[in-house]
Amino acid sequence: MSTAVTGRTRAWRPLTVRLMLAQTAVLAVGLLIVVVTAVLIGPNMFYEELIDVGHADEAEGLVHLEDAFRWVSLTALAIGVLPALGIAGLLSFYLYRTIGRSLASFGTAAGEVAAGNYDVRVTSAELGPEVDALAGSFNDMAAKLSAVDATRRQMLADLAHEMRTPLASLKGHLEGIEDGVVALDEHTTGILHAQITRLERLARDIRQLTAAEEGMIRPQLTPQNPQHLAAQAVAAIEPDAAGKGVSITALSPGTEVGPVPLDPERMGQVLSNLLENALRHTPSGGTIVLRTDHTPEAVTFTVTDSGEGISAESLPHVFERFYRANTGREAHRGGSGLGLAISKALVEAQGGTLEAASAGPGHGASFRIHLPRPRPTARGAGGAEPGGPGNGDV
């Protein structure tokens, strides 16, 4: 570590040396200007001024004093230059040490980050707001890299955990078939097919989530009728809800005030994910409502169910990858544990927000999508969309 720090410090020394030489050059040029002005130009100007005001005789008498004046001026400048050079040298050395140490700390910290140590931080060198801003930006970068690395590690661990169950099931059934313990009948092939489908869905969801969170998805925003999208999403899941004995409806109170820019495919995927999630957690006889609210400022989709609800401890984590409030109870439900995380990323990619709320276990849950409408431009201010506020957000 010490070798790397020394190498980085030496790499920065030319910059601090150039700064010190630049200060010395400025001082030398200033001294030269003072000498030329006081010793050469000054006496001649004073001599000509005496002649101009009618004191030629006195001017002739002062000519012989010019040499003495120059000698005295040079002596005074020499006496003043020595302390000035000493002070300038001390200041230059101080700047050299301060800037050199600061840049060396940046180099050392950058090397630590490159080596995978994202906990390193750079302290302020008190060299001004610019350097402080640089240190703050570096620390923010290190913190974000640390968060990304932690997420990556957690995601790999969760992915390995999620893949273990279907792989173990596949391995167990295949070994049973080989040993003649399990018959290769329709029931067995159905199990094998279900586990393979689960792995395929997991791979697809991982790819979608990664693309959404890394900004690789570019939503195609076009003016859409939110009520139409909600009705389509409800119609798609209605047969499954009927088979489970769950009532599902689309509700849009108030008056629509105009379309909103949306990606219909992505938003349809989000609504489908939220409705499927609600259906998994709603028992027979329960209800699911997809409500669409309009205001001049925003459009809101709210999926509310009368199902199991979410505890206060689990509520802040429902959008995390692979998070399940009760893994033992929910393992058989077929979800990859990524649907809500994907939905949140897709909503945010369209400029909206997705939030969850629940009064607790046994009291159902609601998921609210808030999509702001674009503000009218100055040219279009006079042609704003008609209509007043609706019932407001839920």
Tell me what you see in this structure:
By secondary structure, the chain is an alpha+beta fold. The chain has three domains: about 1-115, no CATH class; about 150-215, Orthogonal Bundle (Helix Hairpins), CATH 1.10.287; about 220-385, Histidine kinase-like ATPase, C-terminal domain (Heat Shock Protein 90, 2-Layer Sandwich), CATH 3.30.565. The chain is about 60% helix and about 10% strand. The protein contains nine helices and seven strands; from the N terminus they run αααααβαββαββααββ. It has helices spanning about 1-50, 55-60, 65-115, 130-180, 185-215, 225-245, 265-280, 325-330, 340-350, and strands at about 220-225, 245-250, 260, 285-295, 300-305, 355, 365-370. The strands form two sheets. A five-stranded mixed β-sheet has the order 2-4-5-7-6. It has a two-stranded antiparallel sheet with strand order 1-3. A hairpin with a 7-residue loop joins strand 6 and strand 7. Helix 4 runs antiparallel to helix 5, helix 5 packs parallel to helix 9 and helix 6 packs parallel to helix 7 (about 265-280). The chain is elongated, with a radius of gyration of 38 Å. The protein starts with a helix and ends in a 22-residue tail after the last strand. Mean pLDDT is about 75; it is low at about 1-15, about 325-335 and about 380-394.
